[in-house]
């Protein structure tokens, strides 16, 4: 490999590590959430949200496309989510949404998700007997 080829490869690698993912300007930053309370109309759902390195309990506010999303329609307490959006004064406005396994959450939310799932399991345990 010549010096010019090495320089070209190094430039491409540098661009890959510094470029923003496609669509991130429109969708906002990534965040993770564990749902703690679901309202009947689903216009506002309370959750523990991990964004910007900290966890806070805030409302999740769906955009119109999210309201029609099957994940949002089937949302329950303890669901783990990965989403993009932005934090506003009213809560976290969601641009995109994915359902996650609780083990895929950041460490700051794994304890919250574990406690939530334990409480949920204990609520159903008497019904099984």
Topology:
Blueprint: H1 3-18, H2 24-27, E1 29-38, E2 45-51, E3 54-62, H3 64-67, H4 70-73, E4 80-87, E5 92-100, H5 107-128
Parallel strand pairs: 3-5
Antiparallel strand pairs: 1-2, 1-4, 2-3, 4-5
Structure description:
It is extended, with a radius of gyration of 19 Å. With 129 residues, the protein is α+β, with helices and mostly antiparallel strands. 39% of the residues lie in helices and 33% in strands. The chain has one domain: Beta Barrel (OB fold (Dihydrolipoamide Acetyltransferase, E2P)), CATH 2.40.50.
Q: So what's the overall shape?
A: extended
CATH level-4 homologous superfamily:
Nucleic acid-binding proteins
Radius of gyration: 19 Å
* Helix-and-strand structural type: alpha+beta
Question: Could you name the ranges where pLDDT drops below 50 across 5 or more consecutive residues?
Answer: 15-26
Task: Produce a short descriptive summary.
This protein has helices spanning 3-18, 24-27, 64-67, 70-73, 107-128; strands spanning 29-38, 45-51, 54-62, 80-87, 92-100. It contains five helices and five strands; from the N terminus they run ααβββααββα.
Keywords, please?
extended; single chain; 5 strands; 39% helix; 5-stranded mixed beta barrel; 33% strand; alpha+beta; 129 residues; OB fold (Dihydrolipoamide Acetyltransferase, E2P)
């Amino acid at each position: 490999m010549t010096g010019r080829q090495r320089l070209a490869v190094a430039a491409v690698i540098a661009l890959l590590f510094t470029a923003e993912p496609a669509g991130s300007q429109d969708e906002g930053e990534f965040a993770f959430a564990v749902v703690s309370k679901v309202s009947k109309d689903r216009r506002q759902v309370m959750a523990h949200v991990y964004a910007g390195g900290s966890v806070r309990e805030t409302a999740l506010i769906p955009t119109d496309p999210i309201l029609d999303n099957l994940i949002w329609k089937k949302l329950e307490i303890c669901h783990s989510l990965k989403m993009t959006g932005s934090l506003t004064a009213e809560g976290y406005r969601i641009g995109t949404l994915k359902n996650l396994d609780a083990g895929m959450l950041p460490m700051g939310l794994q304890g919250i998700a574990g406690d939530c799932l334990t409480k949920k399991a204990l609520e159903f345990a008497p019904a099984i007997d």
